[in-house]
Amino acid sequence: MGLPTLDLSQQEAWRAAYSQKRPGWRPAGEVFNALLEPRLHPTARALDAGCGRFGVLGRFRDQVGLAVGVDGDFPALRENALLPLRVLARLEALPFPEGAFDLILCTWVVEHLPEPRAAFRELARALRPGGSLLILTPNARHPLVALGRCLPARLRPLLVGRLYRRSPRDIFPTFYRANTPRALRRMLQEAGLICEAWEAVEDPTYLAFHPWLFALAVLWERWTAWRPLQDWRIHLVSAWTKPAGRRQGAAYSSKTTTLSS
């Protein structure tokens, strides 16, 4: 008997079913978009940090004045057809001047950062005073994420690809060095940012390979509805602001590759 699988369409169907049983629940992507949309305006300069092949900003590029994507993966960046302006660079060494952006998005990226403190300093430096950094990332406290981290590094991408039907080109090394609520808050505050919004979001659909597994995941989410346990939910969504007058002294590199379509 082969391993069970769960593709994105199946997962979305389970999310729809769960939302009917849990009125008012929104998946992490919708929570993130609710933070994002009020910050979109025609003069905004926005950066999708770690945009990869798809990213989020590309869907909203017509609602901002400038939409830029940055990523360290050249093949993924080259295939991104949503953003006309893409820059090849590591988040730990952004090639942008201080205060270049009003808005920075960082979705499904923090878990892949080998040096999150350096990346957060750079993101804060590239953000103008009063600007916003929005983050969506998995929570390393959640049992499913913790279990995945216990697997041998060579086995993880094979298992993820098989279970969730992901292409090898869409599976990247994970480090989870800033992926607990405490670590994420601390590192972003150290970078000089102020937390404006924070939500740990439940989502039992990652175990929807079988109804019994899904039911077990739902029980976990009900348990974590108790406020002291909410920071054990699977996704962390937050909004951070750079205070007025905050300046970063880090230099930026002029060595970069820009891709334009």
Overall description:
31% of the residues lie in helices and 20% in strands. It is built from eight helices and eight strands, in the order ααββαββαβαααβαββ.
What is the string of SSEs from the N terminus onward?
Answer: HHEEHEEHEHHHEHEE
Strand order of the largest sheet: 6-7-5-4-1-2-3-8
- Helix and strand composition category: alpha/beta
CATH topology: Rossmann fold
**Shape designation:** globular
Percent helix among the residues?
A: 25-40%
Helices and strands in order:
Blueprint: H1 8-21, H2 28-36, E1 45-49, E2 66-71, H3 74-79, E3 85-88, E4 101-107, H4 116-126, E5 127-138, H5 143-150, H6 155-164, H7 181-190, E6 194-201, H8 211-223, E7 235-241, E8 257-260
Parallel strand pairs: 1-2, 1-4, 2-3, 4-5
Antiparallel strand pairs: 3-8, 5-7, 6-7
